[in-house]
Amino acid sequence: MAARTVLHEADISRALTRIAHEIIESNRGPDGLILVGIPTRGRYLAERLREQISRISGTEVPVGTLDVTLYRDDLGRQPVRSPQPTQMPGDVVDGATVVLVDDVLFSGRTIRAALDALGDHGRPRAVRLAVLVDRGHRELPIRPDFVGKNLPSAQSERINVRVTEVDGVDEVSIEDRA
Amino acid sequence: MTTRAFLITGARLADGRTTDIRIEAGRVTELGAGLDARGAETIDASGLIALPGLVDLHTHLREPGYEQSETVLTGTRAAAAGGFTTVFAMANTSPVADTAGVVEQELALGEAAGYARVQPIGAVTVGLQGERLAELGAMARSRAAVRVFSDDGFCVSDSRLMRRALEYVKTVDGVIAQHAQDPALTVGAQMNEGTVSAELGLTGWPAVAEESIIARDVLLAEHVGARLHVCHLSTAGSVEVLRWAKARGAQVTAEVTPHHLLLTEELVRGYDPRYKVNPPLRRQEDVDALRLAVADGTIDIVATDHAPHPVEAKECEWPAAANGMVGLESALSVVQATLVDPGHVGWSDVARILSEAPARIGRITGQGEPIAVGSTAEITLYDPSPVRPFGTDRLRGQAVNSPFIGTELPGRVVWTFHDGYPTLADGELREPDDIAAELVRA
Amino acid sequence: MRHLLSTRSLDRDAAVRLLDIAEDMADTQTREVRKLPTLRGKTVVNLFFEDSTRTRMSFEAAAKRLSADVINFSAKGSSVSKGESLKDTAQTLQAIGADAVVIRHSASGAPQTLADSGWIQAGVLNAGDGTHEHPTQALLDAFTMRRRRHGAASRGRDLDGFRVTIVGDVLHSRVARSNVWLLSTLGAEVTLVGPPTLMPLGTAAWPATIGYDLDAAVDAGPDALMMLRIQAERMNDAYFPNAREYSRLWGLDDRRLSRLPGRSIVMHPGPMNRGLEISARAADDPRSSVLEQVANGVSVRMAALYLLLSGAGEDPTS
Questions:
Q1: Are residues B327 and B266 in the same domain?
Q2: pLDDT one-digit tens code per residue, B395-404
Q3: Which chain B residue's Cα is nearest to C88?
Q4: Are residues B204 and B288 in the same domain?
Q5: Which of B50-54, B347-351, C48-52, C66-70 has the lowest mean pLDDT?
């Protein structure tokens, strides 16, 4: 069962740089922005976007991580998941523009859970969604605002996103599970 | 007694001899090889061991009063299925067997059922209350001719009362069968006291509560020159006390149950009330000591303490559950597994500890006699070879509270002859109507 | 996790995982909105055969903060007090559709009997059975100790080398039993102190040191000193002469408190008998974690309910 690499380190870096530009542009500058990564890998992608935005605009935007495990609607369908830490920047969610950052957008259920979880931390002015890969197959009316790469895939395929901080390498690959 | 004749061919007696056995009119009429089958139903017993019909000195039949657990009929059917031809029925019925009237009723129920001899045990004290002596003399002189007296379930803990009871039954050559349990040391007790009880948080039943009573009782029996029988001895320490008492010449006998020869307190860990029994299951060291004590004769007999309970008494929290296990159907198999197969005793010892000695302790005749020409036709034919799972299909009484369900046990009782007729025929219990016909024929 | 019946059956990783999830639960309890949707649609029954308002409230708060529906079934005044069996009660709860049963019972082993019975499919959570175990109490105690020692860096840690002394009626204490197993699994060194009459016979195999001298135990400078509640009825059963002598020999009084190191934690599972096993000053001392224990109890019980109710059937990792 061969895995085919579709994004290499340089591709990922370019995609994140482009997304950082798009975020600043659509927000008309970096003010009032918060980047919120969804564990596990979204949290490191959010951190990298923070660096890019800082490099481009000279502004340090707050970054948080938001675990959505306790908000999932599919808990009873798989083995027990351990939640991961949530660290939200204090007292800045209200009125801010929150950009949720995740590695792969698939059914949309994780993002739905993230919207619920976010609501328990405050009332943002707006919520945007940035993903490294959109692989389609949405089950909910959710659409990303910023996409690194659209990767049309079959249901039976598996998209693996690896980041250096967790996996020791930056790479996106497709694997056929059939 | 029946007029039917049977020829049992090729059976092995307890002493190892192989022989045919002719039964006629309730007696053994001929022994030897190649006997003539004239006028007799022939039973091929090759590979089977012929034991004198088994005698259980400790059975709870529950009737009168607790017929939802067992009746004399169902209990003696269980006995026949287990190879028993006599059961001594404990006194803790309702009403308690503490008068001549109740013991005679018990006797009559046994005779009417016809599956085994039911020999009533009389209560030592009125209502098992441990306060006043029951009418021991009247029970002894009744048609039931009671010789064994016991408050089993309760200990005759009052020293003065115990002394009086021992003295009093001397007149009828009776024996006090003591349930040795110091009540003050066992308030709320749920299981053996030790490492497992400490962990499970169940109130402990210390070995010393049994051993101290046995020590007191053997000294009392020696002092007044009376007979003492110790029920369901369960600890290594009790064995030591008993050994010491016998060396001193005290008239003391003792029994052990099959479950105390096989099972340990480790089984309590799952809180399954099937393993709740009084005295409780003990440690492996105790099991080992009990087996050796049977082998060297310190313990005289194996008795079942067959204690049937309805399902709801065991389908509950451990502390709320009733004490007791059924044991008639499994006794001989457990004795084989724990004593014969490991080489502690031979089949002639089995005949002694499960038939001859209990009959002698209980002072009954016509039971527990070695199979010989002229002896009563009380015979159990046992196949020691098959090892099989023990399931509820093996239980023939009313209750299913056996601790052996789901285990593998060796052996199988194939035929039981009581008073000259089969109660168990080729592994099948005979129907009550057939047994009634045998009684009419007599 | 199918059931939580005892701490004895928890291995280190399972225990640390539960404590870590309790940390996550505790984090959510500092937010403006403390309710999580996690167990929406699940039904938790608090089946209490023994009065315990504190434990029942703690479980109720835990279940409700996870959005489970809670049914409180108190045996007092119900058909149970009229002789209904555990089996009938269990089958009733099955028919109602309970997903988890939190059971408190005066009989040791009753939760296990319920779990093994086949009368009910629900997960069973032991909230204290007789003198056997009280696993969530021990878990909240361990959680409290770990937080006091490691603070925000608690996640993933155990209690390696932590020295805990448990004082009092160990014989009748389910809290002590659950703590002995759990704390030793987590690497702590456990000492039990009390009158010999209130120590179980047969503790030789326990992963704990047994002592009878509280002064020596205090002078050894334990990291945590846990005082067990002494029940009034023990005094009438010849376990010790009277309350005064018990308090003098095995109570945490002001004198002993003053000799206890500043880093030591004073713990008590509650409810306290002030002036008997613990002085008022000790109970209110900054070293006392009694109220923390109560707060942590909710987080730990949220974690336990989460582990019991969120997975699809058997979880191979726990």
A1: yes
A2: 999 999 999 9
A3: B316
A4: yes
A5: C48-52
Q: Is B173 a catalytic residue?
A: no
A118 CB neighbours in chain C (<8 A) are none
Helices (H), B250-362: 258-262, 284-295, 331-335, 347-351, 357-361
- CA C47, CA B189: separation in Å to the nearest integer? 26
Q: Closest-CA residue in chain A for C37?
A: A71
In Å, how far are B237, B308, B344, B399 from B260, measured between CA atoms? Answer: 14, 17, 16, 20
The answer to whether C13 contacts chain A (CB < 8 Å) is no
In-domain check, residue A168: no
User: Are C107 and B272 a contacting pair at CB < 8 A?
Assistant: no
Question: Is it true that the peptide bond before B120 is cis, omega within 30 degrees of 0?
Answer: no
On whether residue A55 sits in a domain, the answer given is: yes
ipTM of predicted assembly, 2 dp? 0.93
- Compare all CA atoms of chain C with the CA of B196 and give the residue at the minimum distance: C202
> What is the least distance, in Å, from the CA of C297 to any CA of chain A?
19
pLDDT tens digits, C280-302: 999 999 999 999 999 999 999 99
Burial of C313 (0-12, 13-18, 19+ CB in 10 A): exposed
* Residue span of the structural domain in which A149 resides: 10-73+84-154
* Shortest distance, CA B59 to any CA of chain C (angstroms): 28
User: Has residue B352 been placed in a domain?
Assistant: yes
Q: Which of residues 119-178 of C touch B (CB under 8 A)?
A: 129-133, 174, 177
CB contact under 8 A, A121 and C31: yes
Domain identity same for B325 and B434: no
Same structural domain, B235 and B304 = yes
Neighbours of chain C (3+ CB pairs under 8 A): A, B
Chains C and B touch (3+ CB pairs under 8 A): yes
Residue-level pLDDT at B442: 62
CATH of the domain at B245: 3.20.20.140
Residue B372: how many other CB atoms lie within 10 Å: 11
Contact criterion met (CB < 8 Å) for A119 and C311: no
Q: Is the dihedral of CA C280, C282, C288, C293 positive or negative?
A: negative
Do B344 and B293 lie in one domain? The reply is yes
Do B118 and B265 lie in one domain? The reply is yes
Does B266 contact chain C (CB < 8 Å)?
A: no
Rounded Cα gap, residues A171 and A173, in angstroms: 7
Segment C193-238, tens digit of pLDDT:
999 999 999 998 899 999 999 999 999 999 999 999 998 777 778 8
Domain count, chain B: 2
Please state whether at least 3 CB pairs lie below 8 Å between chains C and A.
yes
Report residues of chain A scoring pLDDT below 50: none
pLDDT at site C79: 56
Res. C315: pLDDT tops 60: no
Q: Which of B305, B349, B419, B426 is catalytic?
A: B305
Residue C313 has pLDDT above 60, yes or no: no
CA separation, residue A50 to residues A20, A21, A34, A61, A110 (Å): 8, 11, 9, 6, 22
pLDDT value of position A178: 65
Q: Which of B333, B338, B315 is nearest to B382 (CA)?
A: B333
Asked if residue B259 belongs to a known ligand binding site, the reply is no
Contact C86 B198 (CB under 8 A): no
B316 — contact with chain C (CB < 8 Å)? yes
pLDDT band at B1 (very low <50, low <70, confident <90, very high): low
How far apart CA A43 and CA A45 sit, in angstroms, is: 6
**CB–CB contact C108 B197 (8 Å):** no
pLDDT at residue B218 in the model: 98
Q: What domain range is B378 assigned to?
A: 5-50+374-389+407-441
Higher pLDDT, C291 or B285: B285
The CATH number of the domain holding residue B412 is 2.30.40.10
Are C85 and B315 a contacting pair at CB < 8 A? Answer: yes
- Going by the DSSP 8-state scheme, the letter that residue B255 receives in this structure is E
Asked if C177 and B199 come within 8 Å (Cβ–Cβ), the reply is: yes
Express as a percent the part of chain B with pLDDT over 90. 98
pLDDT tens digit string along C19-74?
999 999 999 888 878 899 999 999 999 999 988 889 999 999 999 999 999 999 88
